[in-house]
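A quick aside before the break. I want you to see a complete sequence-to-structure record at least once, exactly as it would be stored in a machine-readable document. Don't worry about memorizing anything.
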Amino acid sequence: MSLPPPDSPLGILMSSLPRAGRVEWIGLRPQRDVEMVAVTEALAVAGRGLQGDRYASDSGKRGITLIQAEHLPVIAALADHPQLAASLLRRNVVVSGIPVIALKGRRFRIGDVLLEGTDDCDPCSRMEAALGPGGFNAMRGHGGLCARILEGGQLRTGDAVVPVPADAG
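That is the input. The structure line, written in tokens, reads:
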């Protein structure tokens, strides 16, 4: 996705975020068909993913997945659940306070880690099994963001999520 020029009216609107976000939860998928493991910190490896996560490979665009904390109650309501554990949604990082979709196509930092938002993280068929009938559709539009890790380092719960200005190259 290419962003509009930063000095265009749409570019100015898209770069305007009221505050930094915050990491609320981190999870790793150590292997296929097992529950996610909640951790308080994880090592992000540039060009790969989170150490200990089964998707840590030369995946390029999907080194890490993020989901909006504010969307969890919406997904729960749409899937007819009183609440949902973040681990059921199989995303690596739950972020609050900043719209993760606004990070698509741009660079951002979580702590010292530099990332680039690449694609929507659309739900897969596993959501039907995890959330019950309609779980896939409950997540549509709320699945989050995939990102590539450009500069590695430690991610921790509580870390700030901050967009990098477009002119910071």
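Two observations worth writing down. The longest strand covers residues 21-28. Residues 9-15 form the longest helix (7 residues). We'll return to this after the break.
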